[in-house]
Amino acid sequence: MDWYFISQTSPGSLDWDLGVAVAHTLQEQGDGVFAKGLGQGFKRAPRFRAGSALTVGCGWGQRGQILLTTHVIEGQAPITRFRLVLTTTPGLSSGDWPDSVQYLPYPIDPIFYETEDSGSVFEVTAQLRLEHRPRLVFGGNYHDGAGLTTLLTTAKQVLKQQGELVLLNGLKFRDQLAPVVQRLNLAGVAIFAPPLAPDLESAIMHSADLYLDPTRGGELPANTLKSLAARLPVVMWRDSLGAQMSQGAVLMVEPDRPEVWPDAISEGLDNGRLRERMMERGWEALKAHHPERVAEQFMLSARKRGLTRE
């Protein structure tokens, strides 16, 4: 079967990532994949005449859309139109969407599930000059001032002797956060990381001791999901989305008790039995986010709506 992806959402968005992951997986299993707007690696999608294709919508929602079409040779089959909505957006209840809506898990790069690449760990620790323990990682919402305050003041309390707080994609916010970092004497602790390739970002997760995110808002917490896939224990605020995503694999802090963060982090670092349980549950919970599993769910949804392999 040939699939035609026409992206109308911004590169790097959650729905764009979803489209790319599904397209790559379909291509790897032998389907024909053509695309416009999904970056390199696909043949360019041709223009379609009206009525010449079945249309399937992917990511049709608040952040834009990715249209997927299956090729139909005119004259050989009746033209039937479908609109299957596939989106990573988890914020709306099913009653707010048409019956055709199906949510797909946000796809996580397979490299986060792997544990064998010690070369990337060596490369990223050398690049960022990482050398101390415990190593904490943050990759949440940099626009949540209250959450960042909790993050840095907690780091000050927990990392009293030595340690590191790696701020994923934090380099562009370094000037903004420099005053509070200096005031808290965290200049030698806070590591502002530039944007990293997936293999190096995965290496950060695999070399760290704990992922924490005391921020709120923003998009789906993709870095939290990556951490769980990499079997990195997570501490975050208690909310329904986090509980649903992690299936009990994270240590949650009650929303009205920010003073508990240092104790929660210490528990996540020092309680070996808890850490093992969190690591295993997180990895199990994230199996559905592997691109192959996401593509399988996509194909199942497509078949249910009349889109079948030739």
Description:
By secondary structure, the protein is an alpha/beta fold. It is built from ten helices and 13 strands. It has helices at 14-28, 118-127, 145-158, 174-183, 198-207, 222-229, 240-246, 261-270, 272-285, 291-304, and strands at residues 2-7, 32-36, 43-44, 53-61, 64-71, 85-87, 101-103, 135-138, 164-167, 190-192, 210-213, 234-237, 251-253. The strands form three sheets. It has a six-stranded parallel β-sheet, with helices on both faces. The protein has a five-stranded mixed β-sheet with strand order 3-2-1-5-4, covered by helices on one side. Helix 1 packs across helix 10. The chain is globular and about 60 Å long. The chain starts with a strand and ends in a 6-residue tail after the last helix. Residues 49-55, 57-65, 73-85 and 89-100 have low confidence and may be disordered.
Features:
310 residues; alpha/beta; 36% helix; single chain
Mean pLDDT: 78
- Helix fraction by DSSP (H/I, runs of at least 4): 25-40%
Measured distance between first and last alpha carbons: 6 Å
Low-confidence stretches: 49-55, 57-65, 73-85, 89-100
- What's the oligomerization state? single chain
Q: What global shape is seen?
A: globular
Radius of gyration: 22 Å
Give the strand tally.
13
Give the SSE order as H and E letters. EHEEEEEEHEHEHEHEHEHEHHH
Q: By helix and strand content, what is the structural category?
A: alpha/beta
Task: Outline the biggest β-sheet.
Answer: 6 strands, parallel
Helical stretch tally: 10
Q: Largest beta sheet: what is the strand line-up?
A: 10-9-8-11-12-13
Roughly what fraction of the amino acids lie in strands?
A: 15-25%
